[in-house]
Amino acid sequence: SEAEVNFGNDEIYVEKFLRNPKHIEFQIFADNFQNVIHLGERDCSIQRRHQKLIEEAPAYEINQEEKEKLLNVIIKAMKDIKYRGAGTIEMLYENKKFYFIEMNTRIQVEHPVTEMITGVDIVSEQIKASAGNKLTIQQKDIKFRGHAIECRINAENPKTFIPSPGTIKMYNPPGGNGVRVDSCIYNGYGVVPYYDSLIGKLIVHAENRKEAISRMNRSLDELVVDGIHTTKDLHKKIISSKSFKKYDFNINWLESFLKK
Question: 154-164 pLDDT, tens per residue?
């Protein structure tokens, strides 16, 4: 066959076709002493060309029985390979079943939503683990509280997604209870075209998802980044949509939403 001629192997790897899955990922943490905990899951289904734009925690309407089975498998696997540090197990989720994609052996961009609902400083724990220290928390100490949403603020035209380098003439981040901004930009900051377009992360936390959406809406209204284009208006459009409010979306939803 052509495969055997070109690669010396004509074996075929068959994967299950998933039409419209969600992207659900699980945050784990381990030290050098076989202590492994999980910090729950995140929904990262709002994507464009497989690039995440909005993440939230926890995920809604997932099969809790399957979730608990999966978490047991994940924790056992981490112990078996003697994993250390923060890690993310990424899955596709459709028809109440999980399907493994990959493991990211690092801290994710979207880790703040997990920190907001657990109160665990993942970066601090990572540093301690790297220094050879034991985990300072156990699974029984993890308490999940409320709902968190993160919007990635990119230096891009919100309609064409063309990168928007330039100088930031005015920057005013939102503030208040349950609002967090992770960014290095400031008035006069120069956005260059050579790297990833992410210039900040806007994260909110509230008692429930409905309140978190409302808080994010207000925070986006307060956010001012003048001098360049950003995806702020796109985020406003997404979180104000009926589908987002009803949690009725998957990894393919945004592409069709943008065509309307």
Answer: 999 999 999 99
Round to whole Å and give the CA distance between 116 and 130.
23
Residues 196 and 105 in one domain: no
Range of the domain at 61: 23-145
Percentage of residues in the chain having pLDDT higher than 70: 100
Query: Dihedral, CA atoms, 256, 239, 57, 202, nearest 10 degrees?
Result: 120
The residues near 158 (Cβ < 8 Å, ≥ 6 apart) are 229, 230, 231, 232, 233, 234
Rounded to 10°, the helix 111-118/122-130 angle is 100
12 located within any domain: no
Tokens of 224: 């001012």
Which pLDDT belongs to residue 157?
97
pLDDT band per the 50, 70, 90 thresholds, residue 166:
very high
**Residue 38 and residue 88 in one domain:** yes
| Residues recognised as catalytic | 106
Dihedral, CA of residue 106, residue 128, residue 37 and residue 46, to nearest 10 = -30
Q: Which two tokens stand for residue 147?
A: 């709902």
Beta bridge partners, 82, equal none
Is residue 45 in some structural domain?
A: yes
